[in-house]
Amino acid sequence: MFRNFKTVNRFVFGRGCFNQLDDILAPQRTADCPDMVFVVDDVFKGQSLQERVPLRADDLLLWVNVDNEPKTAYVDRLTTEVRKAMTERRRALPAGVIGIGGGSAMDLAKAISLMLTNPGSSADYQGWDLIRHPAVYHAAVPTLSGTGAEVSRTTVLTGPEKKLGINSDYTVFDQVVLDPELIAGAPREQRFYTGMDCYIHCVESLTGTYLNAFSQAYGEKSLALCQEVFLQDTTPDSDDKLMMASYFGGMSIAYSQVGVAHAMSYGLSFVLGVHHGIGNSIVFDYLDDFYPEGVAEFRQMLDKQGIALPRGLTANITDDRLETMVNVALMLNPLWENALGKDWQQIMTRDRIRDLYRRM
Ligand code: NAD
Ligand code: ZN
């Protein structure tokens, strides 16, 4: 069966296009549901971006904290907060949920928009196609580029039992606002690590067994843009390129899959709370056997950008926690199959994966 996948309905791209957000949202406001919910990374509190959020009368500005990557309990709390605010306004639902921030804030916006129309806890929907009812209209404004969260059909959440996305067609954003000016202020290291998420998406997609012409077309262009951004000197349009790389990288994996670095990074993240981009980078540096060319080029990027990867993460880890890490990574069958083929279990044994983790 071929995947018949849903994509974002509308994109606007260009420097300063964030100023159009109010006009873009206006048609979504109806007499019954006139209010927007802006889910904004609290790093922008008191910054100039705060003043530019196009709040109208009864709109809700929901500051979110992403020091930890999104958890299901946090999504549930935020959804309750939105419901309560809507009840106070005597509205059934908001007109839309708009996520402004990096992958974490965008994922929170996706998750809230889904949970406003689906009963229970967000943890109940971690998996594939478990969502029953369409989400509230939702839009994304990325302020960091690389994850591809702006185009993907998932919102990655850490629940009580697992780190797994809510994957569904309803998860996909209705609108994305790509304004390269918004990523200019991201801290240098964060920009690099989130950018490497994109680079690693491309390497894993392009070398995977699931590759097809669709994924290859997007993956090759995205990879070339990452090379321009991270191996060459910065130019005035570097952020424009990084934004498009993220979008194309996301489109590439939409029709293929990621691989070894992502599977192992999920284990690091679940047990040690390591964030996605940095976790991928830490793991990738040990994957010469799997991605020799990609890893060599990645090290050139580290050099060019003057980034020193953290080391010794697992130095004092207990055996129990190490086993959990191995379990979380090995749960991700499609990632391993994409990377290593149908017989992946013969290639990536528990011993081998444990040994790799111990070296990190
Ligand atoms: P992030 O959203 O976690 O943000 C990282 C840090 O950068 C935070 O401290 C944030 O406050 C700060 N930040 C963001 N934009 C900034 C800006 N313009 N200026 C200054 N600081 C800024 O980082 P990320 O790498 O974009 O996203 C990682 C998250 O995305 C993880 O939670 C991961 O699970 C998720 N993810 C989702 C998908 C998907 O398809 N849904 C794919 C990959 C990763
Ligand atoms: Zn990723």
Folded structure, characterized:
With 360 residues, the protein is α/β, with parallel strands linked by helices. The protein folds into 2 domains: 10-183, Rossmann fold (3-Layer(aba) Sandwich), CATH 3.40.50.1970; 188-359, Dehydroquinate synthase-like, alpha domain. It is built from 14 helices and 9 strands. It has helices at 21-25, 48-52, 72-88, 103-115, 188-206, 213-231, 238-254, 260-272, 276-284, 292-305, 319-330, 333-340, 344-347, 350-359; strands at residues 10-13, 36-41, 60-64, 96-101, 127-128, 138-142, 156-158, 163-167, 175-178. The strands form 2 sheets. It has a 6-stranded parallel beta sheet with strand order 1-9-6-4-2-3, covered by helices on one side. Strand 2 (36-41), helix 2 and strand 3 (60-64) form a beta-alpha-beta unit. The chain is globular, with a radius of gyration of 20 Å. The two termini are 39 Å apart. The model has no long low-confidence stretch (mean pLDDT 97). The structure holds nicotinamide-adenine-dinucleotide and zinc ion (ZN). Zinc ion binds next to helix 5 and helix 9.
Keywords:
360 residues; Dehydroquinate synthase-like, alpha domain; 2 domains; 6-stranded parallel β-sheet; 3-stranded mixed β-sheet; 14 helices; globular; binds zinc ion
Give the oligomeric state: single chain
Number of helices: 14
- Widest beta sheet: strand line-up: 1-9-6-4-2-3
Bound molecules: nicotinamide-adenine-dinucleotide, zinc ion
Instruction: Give the second-level CATH assignment, the architecture of the largest domain.
Output: 3-Layer(aba) Sandwich
Please identify the top-level CATH class of the largest domain. Answer: Alpha Beta
